Amino acid sequence: MQTIQKIGLGLFLTGFAVWIVTLSLGQFVLTENALKENLKPEHYELIRPRVQNIIGQTYSTAFGFGNAFRAEVETLNEEFRSAQKYDQVIYDNYSLPVAKASSQGTIIQQTGLWFWLSFGLAILGAFLYILPNRRKHPGIKNDHIYHSPATSRGWIGIVLGSFLILFYIALYFYPEYVVNWIILVDPLSQALSGNPASQWFLYGFLYTLAVVIMGIRMLIKYRHSPYQMLRSLSVMFFQTSFAFLIPEILIRLNQPYYDFKNIWPLDYDFFFEFNLNTLISNGTLGLFMLGWGIALIVIAVPIFSYFFGKRWYCSWVCGCGGLAETLGDPYRQLSDKSLKSWKIERYMVHGVLVFAIVMTAFVLYTYFTGQSNVGPIDSYTVRSAYGFWIGALFSGVVGTGFYPLMGNRVWCRFGCPLAAYLGLVQRFKSRFRITTNGGQCISCGNCSTYCEMGIDVRWYAQRGQDIVRSSCVGCGICSSVCPRGVLNLENADPNSRVMIAPELMTGNEMPKIG
C-alpha cells in the first residue's frame, strides 16, 4: 500500500511540476491581428499607436509580455485622467485575450500533450495516493495532525498557502501571467461551450477537479457514516453539474451563463445592471432565471433553513462549502476555538452582510433611476469596493489561500454574507440543532478539535446544551468523530431547544482545544 501511495505522490508532484513549468514555455509576439481581433474598435484606435514599439517583439514569458502591454495601456489611462477625459479611460482588461492571441510555440502546437503531462499525471497520482486508504480504518484517528508540517501550519502548509494566495492574485488581477494554463483547457472549453477558455473557465475546472478528487477522499475516509457520504456526494454533484457543466452548456445554447444554486448576497452581482439586462433580454428562460434567483432569496432560504438549518446549503450545495469540505478537510482542526475569535467572527460576518445589502440598494437605485449618486456617495464606487475587498480579496485570496493557516472555513466563518443570512434564521427560527448527552461525554475533545467553524463543541457537550450557534454549518463531523455517540444532528420543535445565551459565557468557560 505504501509503495502505491509513494508512486502516486511521485506522479502527482511530477504532474504539478510540469504544470508549473508550462508557464515558462512558448513565446509571445504581438501582431496587428491580435489587436484588431481582441480590442473594441474605439479602443483599438487609442491603444494601437501606444503599443507600436512592442509590435513584432518577441517575449519569452507571459510575465514580460503582459507587463509590457499593461504598462502602455495604464500610461494611456493616466494621460486621460490627468486631462480629465474620464469618458475615454479604458476599463476593459485586454491583456489576457491579447496574450492568448500572441502566444506561439509548444503550448499552442501541442496543447493536448502538455495537458496530459500536467493534469493527467497529477490526477492519476492523486487517485493512486488516495484509493489505498480504503484498507485503513474509516474516520479520524488523530494521527499526528499537530506534528505534520502539512497540517499544523508547518512549512508544507505555508508553501501551499502561499501558492494559493499567489494563484488567486494572478487569477483576479493578472490573468495574462497564467495564460498558458488557460490555453491548456481551451479544448475542453471549446467542447462544452464552443468558446475559448477564460481565466474563469480555468478556475471552474480546477475548482471542480479539486472538489471531485478530494470528495472521493472524503467518501473513503468517512465511509462509516452515511450522512458524510451523502453530503460529500451532494457537494460533488452540485459543483460538477450546477456550477460547472450546466452554465457552460447554456452558453453553447446561446443562453445566459447561470449557476442555479448561487444565491444573493453570496452572488453579489446578481442585481447588477449587466446581469439584470442580460436576463431580461433573454426571453422566457432569462425571466425564469431572474425569478428563480429572487425566489431562492425570499422563499427557499427561510423555509429550508427553518426545517434543516443552514446545513442544507452550506454543507450540501454551496461551492465554497464544497471546496472547504473536500480540499480543505485536512485543515479543519486549525480553526480558532477561542471566545475572542467568535466575537470577531460575529462582527465581521454580519458587517459584510450589511455591506452587501447597502451596496445592492445603491445598485438598484442606480438601475431604476439612472443616477449613479446616492447623495454624496457614488454607487459605482461602492460596488467596486465590495467587488475588490470582499468578492476578490476576502472570498478568494484569503478565503482559500488561508486554508493551511486558519482552517478551511475562513470565508464561510468570517466573511460570507449568505452564511450570515442563513445563520440568523438558524439561530432564531429553525428546527435544526445538535443535541448532546453530557452524561456520556468523556471530554476527549475530538468534536472541538475538528469543528471547522471554531465552535468549542466539547463545552456544550459537557453541559448537555443543544448547539444552535448561527455559525454551525451542520457538517456533522463532530458527531462522526465522537467515540461515545454524544452528539446528534436533529430537526425538531424550535421551542424545545436547550440553549445558553452567548452573553452569559466567559473566556474561562470555553477552554482552548488542542
Largest sheet: 3 strands, antiparallel
Q: Which percent bin holds the helix content?
A: 55-70%
Strand order of the largest sheet: 2-1-3
Which spans of ≥5 residues are poorly predicted at pLDDT below 50? 506-514
Output the structural class.
mainly alpha
Q: Report the CATH architecture of the domain at 430-509.
A: 2-Layer Sandwich
Shape: globular
Q: What is the count of β-strands?
A: 7
User: Which range does the strand content fall in?
Assistant: under 5%
CATH fold topology of the domain at 430-509: Alpha-Beta Plaits
What is the rounded distance between the termini?
Answer: 30 Å
Rg of Cα set: 25 Å
Number of helices: 24
Q: CATH top level of the domain at 430-509? A: Alpha Beta
Mean pLDDT: 93
Keywords: 4Fe-4S, Electron transport, Iron, Iron-sulfur, Membrane, Metal-binding, Transmembrane, Transmembrane helix, Transport
Transmembrane segments: 7-30, 113-131, 152-174, 200-220, 232-251, 285-308, 347-368, 388-405
Pfam families: Fer4_5 (PF12801), Fer4_9 (PF13187)
Protein name: 4Fe-4S binding protein
